[in-house]
Amino acid sequence: MRKPKLAVWKFASCDGCQLSLLDCEDELLAVAGAVEIANFPEASSAVVEGPYDVSLVEGSVTTPHDLERIVDIRAQSGLLITIGACATSGGIQALRNFADVREFTRAVYASPEFISTLETSTPIAEHVKVDFELRGCPINKYQLVELIGSFLNRRRANIPHHSVCVECKRKGNPCIPVSNGSICLGPVTHSGCGALCPSYNRGCFGCYGPKELANAESLAAWAKQELEADPATLKRVFHNFNAWASPFKEEGSSHG
Asked: Which of 4, 16, 126, 229 could form a disulfide with 223 if both were Cys (CB 3.0 to 4.6 A apart)?
C-alpha cells in the first residue's frame, strides 16, 4: 500500500515546533517508516510534489506572499494541521497587532521601504480551513506523535483539553498564586507542557494558549483583588506568547 505523504511547512516562526518533531528521535523513526516525508526542508532538501495527505504548518501569516502560499498549501493538502502558538494564534510576533508595524520597521531596518509586510500577524485558521490545531510554544513532541499516529490508525487523537492546573495536581505542585502570591495563567491555559514553569515555582506563562471556555476575566479579577495586580501587569501577562488568541487578547486589551 502507498504510504501517506506528509509535508511540513514553515511560515513566520522560530522553527521550534519543527525541531520538536526532529527531537522525537526513536519515535521519529517509526513515523518515517509509516509515512513518506515528502516535503520537510528542516530535515531534508528532497521534495516530492503534492498533493499531500497531511500537512503540518508552523508559523503565522505575516506577508502578502504568506497569504498566497497558505491558500496553495491548503489546496494541496488532505488534512491541514497547525502546530504551535504562531500557527494557532499568531505567536509572539502578534504583539505588533496592537501597534503600528511601520514604527517597528523604521526602528529596526535601515531601509524600511524595502520591507513588505502585513499590518498584522495572524493564525493560519483566519485564512484557510484548519482540520486540527496543536498548541504550544513549542508543541509537545509526544502530542505530535500521537496526532500523526491517530491519523495513520484512523482514530480520534487523544489530546487532553484540561488546564495546566490538572497537570500541577498530578505532579503534586503547590498552587503558585496561593503559595507565593505570583500571577499564574494555569487555570485558563491549555495543558501539554507538564506544568513545567509551576514545577520550578514560577507562574504559568500561557504558552499553550487558552483552554476551552477559559474564564480569563475571572482570573484577572481575582489577581487584581487578591494579589493587587495592576493593569499594566495584567496586560503584560495576557499579551504574551498567545496574545492574539481570544480570550487572552480581549482580557489583555481591557487593561489599557
From this structure: 229
pTM: 0.92
Residue type for position 86: C
- DSSP assignment string, 94-130: GGGGGS-HHHHHHHH-S-GGG----S--B-GGGTS--
Q: Domains of the chain by range and CATH?
A: 5-152 (3.40.50.700), 164-253 (no CATH)
DSSP 8-state code for residue 1: -
Torsion angle of alpha carbons 22, 27, 28, 30, nearest 10°? 180
Q: How far apart are CA 196 and CA 91, in angstroms?
A: 19
- Cα separations (Å) of 64 from 14, 77, 105, 113? 19, 21, 16, 15
- Tell me the one-letter amino acid at 185: L
Q: Is the pLDDT of residue 107 over 80?
A: yes
Looking at residue 4, the DSSP 8-state letter turns out to be: P
Closest CA to 208 of 227, 188, 225: 188
Per-residue pLDDT tens over the stretch 138-182: 999 999 999 998 998 889 999 988 999 999 999 999 999 999 999
CB atoms within 10 A of CB 149: 16
**Residue linked to cell 521550534:** 16
Angle between helices 141-152 and 26-34 (to 10 degrees): 20
